[in-house]
Design brief:
Strand order of the largest sheet: 9-6-7-8-11-4-2-1-13
Shape: globular
Number of strands: 13
Strand content: 25-35%
Low-confidence stretches: none
Largest sheet: 9 strands, mixed
Order of helices and strands: HEHHEEEEEEEEEEEHHE
Length: 233
């Protein structure tokens, strides 16, 4: 498949992005987590209980791994925990972002400069919780980055149109009651076209709509540059 103008711009500038989270490949270990049906250790009991799910993530990371990571274009079973993903005849299960799992309060930095496109508190079990979307220009191409499961304090006092410079700490991993009742993590997603949505954009789609959504949401690792360091669980 021929790369899009956005993908070309991201490839070209791969070495110029600031780390989205404080990860140092020279000293930090990174665990790739699997949330598909292949992971039989993730039981219905764990998924139904946020505290048990958080404990599961902590046990997977242990003391060896600083973060867990993964999920782009992954067909996940974990969304069965929320009715948010089961509306209509076909449930939504295909993940459109990359998740970085770690401690509550982990800082998040702007990978490149951009304006606050929109923000919202998507307060529904299984949803994003506190969410910020930034709008960027790169090599003449416009696009957006979405940050979900944040702390509520991150959306207090910000305004649409506010400019955030590259490398500025602007958000943090939120606790479950503020992040949609998930174990602490960042959902990071690239969205080419927002289609008039504000403060929200699907992070999970129906498998039958895979091509449409993946075309609009290219691999977030083009910015993160972290998956190359991940060790499979």
């Amino acid at each position: 498949m021929t790369p899009t103008p956005l993908q070309n711009a991201l490839y070209k500038n791969a070495g110029a992005f600031h780390n989205v989270v404080p990860f140092d490949a020279t000293r930090d270990s990174l665990l790739q987590l699997d949330f598909t049906a292949n992971n039989t250790t993730l039981t219905d009991h764990i998924l139904a209980n946020t505290d048990a799910f958080a404990k599961y993530i902590e046990q997977q990371l242990g003391t060896k791994y600083k973060y867990g990571i993964g999920g782009y274009a992954e067909h996940r079973t974990i969304y069965s925990r929320s009715s948010r993903f089961d509306k209509g005849e076909e449930p939504r299960r295909l993940h459109l972002g990359i998740d970085v799992w770690g401690p509550v309060g982990t800082p998040i930095f702007a990978p490149l400069g951009g304006y606050v496109h929109s923000f919202s508190f998507n307060d529904f079990f299984g949803d994003y919780g506190a969410t910020i979307i930034l709008h960027h220009q790169l090599e003449g191409v416009s696009f957006n980055t979405l940050y979900g499961h944040l702390s509520l304090r991150d959306i207090e006092g910000i305004q649409e149109g506010h400019y955030i410079s590259r490398g500025v700490e602007f958000a943090h991993f939120g606790p479950p009651k503020e992040n949609g009742y998930w174990p602490a993590h960042l959902h990071f997603q690239i969205v080419t076209e927002m289609y008039e949505k504000r403060g929200d954009y699907p992070g999970v789609c129906r498998y039958s709509q895979k091509e449409k959504y993946l075309e609009n949401c290219p691999d977030p690792d083009l910015i993160l540059q972290m998956m190359q360091y991940a060790v499979k669980a």
